[in-house]
Design a protein that fits this description.
- By secondary structure, the protein is α/β, with parallel strands linked by helices.
- The chain is 23% helix and 25% strand.
- It has a six-stranded mixed β-sheet with strand order 4-5-6-7-9-8, with helices on one face.
- Helix 1 (13-30) packs parallel to helix 2 (50-59).
- The model has no long low-confidence stretch (mean pLDDT 96).
- The structure holds fe (ii) ion (FE2).
- Fe (ii) ion binds next to loops.
């Protein structure tokens, strides 16, 4: 069969949540989506609260992944411990709350493994190597899954590319998150892994990475740092569809399926 996984980019603030609510179910229907992974680490700006996680699940996410702002809202710690469908990067220190990998039920008894990792370059040098952690998980718990997918939350396009190629032939799909700008390079790598450098975000279209432009511009002009606020206005949803041939385990296609609200 063809298995369809939809990966949705970082949901930013209330505008992003509203956009997700309006567009996700129609997208799932249009593309006959079997499994949906949404990055939710910016739902509260920096981090997410338990009610944001509930709203993202209610909008249609099967699994929520996170990233460098995982600990931005401490109120999420209990949910990270209790809800196996909420993942944080697996290469944080092992004593921290939550988990970075899970195996979930898919169609026709398929077991779907989702791995959340975070890059180190220009982001957090104190993490364990995401490459070594991927090796360890794929050799251990990952063996229980029929299909494996990785959300690699990282700053550098080079590090994201390295992860895609490192895992080529060992997982069905790798996508990047965090930079909030969709990249135009969806592709199937030589050994059959689907890859895209970044999904883009789900949030304010007229913004700098989701933030009010004046906040970000002021910082680059050398003015006193001010609190970043989410921009208003129309929203867009960044998403990529992975189609997997379950007989061969190879990715057939990787396609951008972005949605954007009309601009005034
Ligand atoms: Fe991030």
């Amino acid at each position: 069969m063809d298995f369809h996984l939809l990966a949705v980019g970082d949901v930013v603030a209330d505008g992003g949540l509203d956009c997700l609510r309006r567009h996700l179910r129609p997208l799932q229907k249009t593309y006959d989506v079997h499994f949906t992974v949404v990055n939710g680490e910016n739902a509260a700006g920096l981090g997410l609260l338990p009610h944001h996680a509930e709203e993202i699940f209610a909008a249609g996410a099967d699994v929520i992944t996170l990233g460098n702002h995982t600990w931005g809202k401490r109120q999420i710690l209990d949910t990270l411990e209790d809800n196996p469908y909420l993942l944080r990067p697996a290469n944080f220190a092992p004593n921290l709350p939550g988990r970075g990998f899970g195996v979930y039920e898919g169609p026709r008894g398929l077991r779907i493994g989702i791995l959340n990792l975070m890059g180190r370059f220009e982001l957090d040098s104190n993490l364990d190597s995401p490459f070594q952690v991927a090796d360890r998980i794929l050799a251990g718990e990952g063996a229980e899954a029929d299909l494996l997918f990785v959300d690699f939350h990282a700053e550098a396009t080079s590090e994201k590319g390295a992860m895609g190629w490192y895992l080529d032939g060992r997982v069905q799909g790798v996508w990047g998150t965090h930079t909030h700008v969709p990249t135009a390079d969806p592709q199937v790598l030589p050994q059959g892994t689907g890859f895209v450098t970044d999904l883009g975000m789900t949030g304010p279209a007229q913004s700098i990475l989701g933030v009010k432009p004046e906040n970000s511009v002021a910082r680059f002009l050398g003015q006193l740092p001010r609190r970043y606020e989410a921009a208003g206005g129309p929203n867009k949803l960044g998403a990529v569809l992975f189609t997997i041939d379950t007989d061969t385990g190879r990715c057939r296609s990787v396609t951008r399926v972005d949605r954007e609200d009309p601009r005034p």
